[in-house]
Amino acid sequence: MILNGGTVLDPSMKVHEVMDILITDDRIEKVGPGLSTQFPEEEAFDCTDLWIMPGLVDMHTHLREPGYEYKETIRTGTQAAAAGGFTTIACMANTLPVNDNPSVTRYIREKADEEGLIEVLPIGAATKGLKGEQLAEIGLMRETGIVALSDDGFPIRDAEILRLVLEYARRFDLPVIDHCEDLSTSKGGVVHEGKMGTRMGLRGIPCVSESSVVARDILMAQWLKVPIHIAHVSCKASIDLIRWAKTQGIPVTCEVTPHHLALTVDDLFLSKYDTNFKVNPPLREEEDRKALLNALKEGIIDCIATDHAPHDTQSKMVEFDYASNGISGLETALPLILEVGNEAGISPLNILSKMTIEPARILGVERGALTPGSLANLIIFDPDETWVVNPQEFFSKGKNTPFAGRSLTGRVKATFYHGKAVFLDKKNPWGLTPICTRKPS
Ligand code: DOR
Fold first, then answer.
1. Quick one: which of 204, 225, 205 has its CA closest to 213?
2. Which of 138, 306, 350, 370 has the largest count of CB atoms under 10 Å?
3. Catalytic residue IDs
């Protein structure tokens, strides 16, 4: 199969130019100009005016299965991922039961093999039941296929437990992803603590709740010389600490979400307390959003992760205080980030590196590149198509998005996984029947 005349954007090769891509079976065979001449039409996809990019890698997705299948399943979550342009996702452990032992890890892997459209890499809990008290079955989960450790949704409160987690992580060669939140200062909080929160009459979560734990994690990583990855950074104060850590050579990496780059607490206020804007960590102030964008540009932030957190309608259609935290993010992430990045002067290639090779590097997997010999995981993207976000059209069961009704520019037209189309948009330029399903192998 050949993809003809598209603009190839590949951060691993640092290319952004018109080329063809030749795919043989499940691999990319060649990338270059003028490959298309000897191909029959039925094996060619004309990609004129379209972008061809590596399939995206998301290191922070909540798939909800097992246990919360009414919010999302591995099937619907991977459909949403494929439609959003992702071909590899790492799923968090806060399922029911928690993924803290090898039988849950095996269940997720088997279910993903049977029903998933794309690659699912399970993240194991660091501690049993995400309680932060006893270590989870780290070695056995590693043998069964976890790629990282995280209690996401909860911080690892006890520094001695964190020390043990980091020491086991070193032994089993696993990255540790920490949700940084001091629960004593965030207790009862539902929005960012500041003027706006006070005006809304809602209890706040101060930035120091995050940054104080970021500081502790940095010092632990420095002391033990073990890498630590900070999940969903939201405040300027955390960025300042991470910048310092990087100048000291401390092995710290971090991620930012599309919603923290695009929205602030003011948007929540303007939405009239729409619970779809309720997320943890909360949306912060413009000063924080600007600091996140600058840090992304500077390279202080290593990657962009969706924190896709689908919820059922009932969990959101309640008073603000009682609503669940989270945003369904897989299907809006790419165009949103390209738009926000463009406004901040960040090139598409730079953005793309934060959504492909960088998260792959942190997870220790070889993904996110279009180099010859790589698996043919790639997407075809129309950078000019403008569309309006309608959550009812999401493949995800989670319709909880603060971007409903927002006009976005850029849309995924096709997603290929191991050389096979697993997603074709309903408005695709080749007149093909739309799909969002696993192709028979
Ligand atoms: O908003 C969030 N939702 N933040 C988290 O850390 C967890 C997530 C969830 O699981 O819903």
1. 205
2. 306
3. 307
